DNA sequence: GCTGAGCCCTGAAGCCGGGTGAGAGTCAAG
DNA sequence: CTTGACTCTCACCCGGCTTCAGGGCTCAGC
């Protein structure tokens, strides 16, 4: 009945409360195209029937739903619930990230004596540990290591092994695009074929302990590198991180021990390289 | 002592855990420039002293602090606390916005019988009300009106006036870039010079009631416009919104009455325009 | 028929915070 | 001298639009 009632883009913009430029953009990306385009003038003609779609788009965009997802909802209404639940999850993670940032910002604000790290020099003894390798983009190192440790944990449980020390991970000092290393844990018994194992780097190493949020871990590395320069030494192998209180959800008790094997000045490079 | 120790961009990138491309970018926007640039080769030389700054930048960027704010912090350490508190507030509003979006998304998911609006035709009688004008960008209409009503509220309190009906606002139907209109409230007495007052639009009007989150208000407008088309009428003056349960923080009881003055077919346009 | 106002069109460029790639120059080791 | 790793600049890409320049269409008034 109202099918012949057509609106120029300006009328449609006022009705839908969307800017004209945005409507043209939505036409370009095929999110919402006019019912008809005059073939001679190129004028866009919208119909009243298109208004609910425009309103839905405006609502969803205001909620931050990306146009691509909205297009999926419009073309296939049956997937709407799935897509929306997915968006819901996205917003929830965003909120969680916001909370975490808030905490870290507060740390920054209250943290005055933050960068006092004591770097010691120690000798690492050779150790054979249960290990699980990973290959991760540098940007996802921290969550990826956490996941790898979780998998190692269940592997140990299945094998009936008992952990005799803190969880850890080792990987090259220089983080390339993709970091390959392994998560590890010392265990009570090593049986061939039963479990993947690996030797940990050994020899002289610089070590320091970082407490609290992993976000400030680079500061600890900075201290280690400064000490390295001071001694005129250079890195002698993959770095080693040991995590304690990993299972404790309270972030403030979380601690990381960093061990960086070194070649001291006037020394031959470590064998095996 | 270590002042002569210089790092090429690659070394500095590994130490600071920032991508080389980002370091070059930060140089371009003068957020973090190398201590020295070789005049013949153009090679950037960073010093160890710049590492803490790089680490600080990385931390703040990870928290979503924009580079411009970080630059302010770096050039003037005394403003750091101010800037950080400001960022803190920004994140808090972000989280709040996320929560609101979540609620609205849930409304979308649960809302099935959403778009049933009954549009009635009524006659508005002329009324003189206490008023406070506003001029707002269309995008900030809703919060701006809320703020204007708050100012009107305190003006009424100062003048010892008593409100005799719901808060409201009126503004043109076609939202231009800047919307000029006024917030109003009917009061018990009108005395010249005592309070700004204004007449409300009168005559025949279409009206409907919207309940719940303001985010879905456009649906109500859509229903009003559809009714307008059906009657072959056109808008006859600024639209009028009346808000009840505005003071109640519970969003689900919030209701808006929309009144759109109209010119009915075959009628002369309203006088006064 | 002409003019001007107010619509409308297209295509290109700009915004942020970088990421990516081409093509060329530099440096140290063998 | 060559090789390979490193560096440089310049320019273009992303999303989700907005804005601008340069034009065409339509209608009312004269």
From TrEMBL, chains A, B:
CDD domains: HTH_BmrR. Keywords: DNA-binding. PROSITE patterns: HTH_MERR_2 (PS50937). It comes from Pseudonocardia humida. It comes from the Bacteria. PANTHER family: MERR FAMILY REGULATORY PROTEIN, REDOX-CYCLING DRUG-SENSING TRANSCRIPTIONAL ACTIVATOR SOXR. The keyword DNA-binding applies. Residues 6-76 form the HTH merR-type domain. This is MerR family transcriptional regulator. InterPro entries: AraC_E-bd (IPR010499), DNA-bd_dom_put_sf (IPR009061), GyrI-like (IPR029442), MerR-type_HTH_dom (IPR000551), MerR_fam (IPR047057), Reg_factor_effector_dom_sf (IPR011256).
